[in-house]
Amino acid sequence: xxxxxxxxxxxxxxxxxxxxxxxxxxxxxxxxxxxxxxxxxxxxxxxxxxxxxxxxxxxxxxxxxxxxxxxxxxxxxxxxxxxxxxxxxxxxxxxxxxxxxxxxxxxxxxxxxxxxxxxxxxxxxxxxxxxxxxxxxxxxxxxxxxxxxxxxxxxxxxxxxxxxxxxxxxxxxxxxxxxxxxxxxxxxxxxxxxxxxxxxxxxxxxxxxxxxxxxxxxxxxxxxxxxxxxxxxxxxxxxxxxxxxxxxxxxxxxxxxxxxxxxxxxxxxxxxxxxxxxxxxxxxxxxxxxxxxxxxxxxxxxxxxxxxxxxxxxxxxxxxxxxxxxxxxxxxxxxxxxxxxxxxxxxxxxxxxxxxxxxxxxxxxxxxxxxxxxxxxxxxxxxxxxxxxxxxxxxxxxxxxxxxxxxxxxxxxxxxxxxxxxxxxxxxxxxxxxxxxxxxxxxxxxxxxxxxxx
Length: 454
Known about the structure:
Radius of gyration: 23 Å
Structural class: alpha+beta
Strand content: 15-25%
Low-confidence stretches: 350-395, 400-426, 428-436, 438-454
Mean pLDDT: 78
Helix content: 25-40%
CATH class of the domain at 176-260: Alpha Beta
Number of strands: 20
Distance between the termini: 34 Å
CATH architecture of the domain at 176-260: 2-Layer Sandwich
Number of helices: 10
C-alpha cells in the first residue's frame, strides 16, 4: 500500500521537532501536528546537558544555539546540595548550556522544516485507529490522515498514550512549586542579608540572579491552584512572604509557571505501529533540568530505527530496542528526581527520614491513592530493586549504513551479529559505548566482531 505520509508526529515540542529532523535525515516523509497555533510566548530557561550538546554538535545545531545561551560549569545541585563537576570528562562539550526553551523549539522546528518535514500548527489529534498496515489519524476538525506509523510526543497529558491504553503508573503530585523569572525591587545587599539569615532551612526556595536585573525565583505554592492556569505575581508574593518574610518587591515578570512533583513512567513505549517519546512517556519534577534532555535523546534513539523499519532494511527486532534502551534510562532519571524530592520534603527531620527509609524498603507512602504503582526509592547504591533485563540486552548503537539491495541483512550467528554498522556523515551516531543515549554500560551485550557485508 502506498502512503503519502510515513510518520505522523503528534506534538511539536523539542522531542517532536528533533524526531522529525532525525527521520528526514533518512528521507522519511514526516508530518508534525501541533494543536497550538503559535509557539509558547513565555520564556522558560532550560539546561542542555553534555550528552545533548554532543548530539546538537553532531547535527550542526550547537553553533546556532550557543549565541542564545549561557555556558555554565558542568556542576549543579542535588536536592539543594552543591554537586561539583566531575573530573576528566571525555567530551569536547564538558559544560552546561542555559538557554530559553522557545529558542530550542524554534531552532529545532526550523531545522526539521529545512530538511523537508511538514509542520501543521493549529491541528490537534483527536483519535486514531491502527491495523496491520498503518494508522488512520483523525483530527479535531474531522479530517482523516493515513500513515505508516504514529509517534506521540504530545506531553504528559498525551492523547496518544491515553487512547493507546498504555498504563502510566507512578505517584500523584503532593506538593506544588512556583517557578518564574522577574525583577526584584530591593537592593542586592538586602537580598543577600535576607538569604543569609534564612540559611538552608527553606529547601524548595531560591532566589538566583540571572543577569540584567532578572532573578530566577522558586518558592512553594501557598494552597492548591489550578494547574491548567499559570500562577499570578500575587501568588509569588504570598509564597515569598510565607518563606522569607518579605516579597522582595517582585515585579515585571518574564514568565511564571507552576509544577507538581508527580512522577510517572509509561509501561510501554510501543504498541504496534504507535510509539511514545518525551513527556508522553515519562514525567517527573524539573529538578536538575533533565526532562528536555531525556526527550531529545529519546528522539535521536528512535529516529534512525524507525527510518530503518520504514525503509525495510532493519532486523525485525530493531524497533523494539528503542523501548529496551530508553525505558531504563527514564527509570533512572525518575529515581534521581524521586530521591531529590524526598530530601527536599518539608516534613520535619525524623518524619521525612523515616518516610524515605520506608520508601527504600518499598513501603507505600501514606495517604496516596496510587501507591500500588510506586517503585521503591533508591537513595544509595545497593538498594535498587531488581528489574527484569530486556529480552535482548544490547548496547545502544547509532544509525547503520543501509546495506546494498543485493545484500540482505545477515542474521546473527556465532561470528556475526545483527548489530548495524555506524553511519559516517551528517547523521552519524554517537561513538563508543559511553556515548550512547541509552542504558549502555549496564545493559550492554558482549561485543562481537561485526562482519556485515563481508
